[in-house]
Amino acid sequence: MPALTKNQRAMLQTMLEQLEEELKDLLSITEAGAKPVKLKDNQGRLSRMDELHNQSILIANRTVTSNRLKAVQQAKQRLELESYGFCTSCEEPIAFKRLEAYPEASMCIKCQSDNE
Prior knowledge:
The protein has 4 helices and no strands. It has helices at 6-30, 45-80, 96-101, 109-115. It is elongated.
């Protein structure tokens, strides 16, 4: 499998930059909802329970988003170091189709499967 072409790298870099902005925006938008629920804001026990449940889901989603943002930022660092597109485990090239679908991928499919 060949390494990425210059055009592929440029396209993936643009994708990473756009994804980074989208993830930052999402974290910013959901920040208020992740703050502790105030007792006085809810009149009934069930509405408070609903709000706490919704908040726990939001916090879990924010954690996933934050982790993905870190992976995107690490991928951008690998781009600068010219190690982007190569598996961090076996050092073989990562398939372009995989990077196109998941631009922050740090491992090839085989190593990712073995890792899970």
